[in-house]
Amino acid sequence: MNPDVRRYQALGPSPRRLFGTGPMNPDPRVLRALGLPLLGQFDPEFTAIMNEVGDLCRFVFRTSNGQAFPISGTSRAGLEAGLCSVLEPHDRVVVGVAGRFGELLAEISTRCGADVTPVLAEWGRVLDPDALRKAVAEVRPKVVALVHGDTSTGVLQPLENLAGAAHAHGAAVLVDAVLTLGGVPVETDRWGLDICVAGTQKCLGCPSGMAPITYTSDVERLIAGRHMPVQSNYLDLGQIQAYWGPERLNHHTLPTSMTYGLREALRLIYEEGLETRWARHHRAGAALHAGIEAMGLRLFGDPAHRLPMLAIVEVPAGVSEPGVREMLLRRHNMEIMAAFGALCGRAWRIGFMGYNAEVQNVLQFLEAFEDVLIASGARVPRGDAIDAANARAGSGR
Ligand SMILES: *Cc1c(COP(=O)(O)O)cnc(C)c1O
Question: Considering the entire predicted model, what is its pTM?
């Protein structure tokens, strides 16, 4: 035995309650699925599971696309797979940039060698649909890339009527639905989204590590008609779809345990029903927003376009932004998150997603948040947050 045996103790992570912007706490049934016995990559039992995962992806994306499967890697691997498999050097891309994740789409597109035209909106606001349509008409891009729910700003970008203009000019629409899928309606087919990408650790209720993606047969044709091979082997959708499809062409070794976890998370959504799940996120979010405002705190962003699963809370004067997060963790075992960019140090990001999106969790959080804010010197009325959250949740039932 190694004489230094006491150097590394057995793992024993604290039972944190993850009320930030992901990961959240998965349903225990998802965690159990992660520990099931492994199957080989081409075991017929496992390929049958892969087929079910594809079907369940179609279900949550509300699509009848032939292509729907998870990319192995976190959400940004899915975004990168979508962009790098379609874009070639000097292709034109219009990107809606209204937060950190719009910037990410622009950055990935630039790295693909594309010519990027950003359409900007101030953080906290939605894109101006006319500005977007004008840019598309002028630039005539191959791809229009948009973020549905930008986790940096708490804003929900309406997408219902944006694809038509892109299609009229021959562009494919790629959407980052990483935050929103499973939490609010994402209507891939009805809204005409050509490529839609999600992530597992937000409203889908799974640990991070995979990125469900779906795309149309038009996009399949774009990929098949490339002049040059995709620079990335790992993220080449043409190769990955041949692995997920009936050809079963060997690509990477699918992460078996994550595939189980994702299948269980998607199965739980199927069992609950999407409409019920959206309503649950909406109820928890409404209680959260009511509670925060009853404390006299301000929510960042346009109230008409607020994401239900998030609250971007402005830090009150005289209160330490990191101090509150540290005390929440220490006293209450609860995690919330810092903000990005210009909001860094000025706001907290708080989220109730997937399994965590329950009014009871919100009430427990509000009590803890009130305790920590008061201990940090903020003037917060005691008990008002709980009353307001309860009142809002009650009226919503
Ligand atoms: C979390 C998030 C991402 C990135 O996800 P990773 O899983 O960390 O790669 C991308 N877009 C949005 C909108 C997100 O919320």
Answer: 0.97
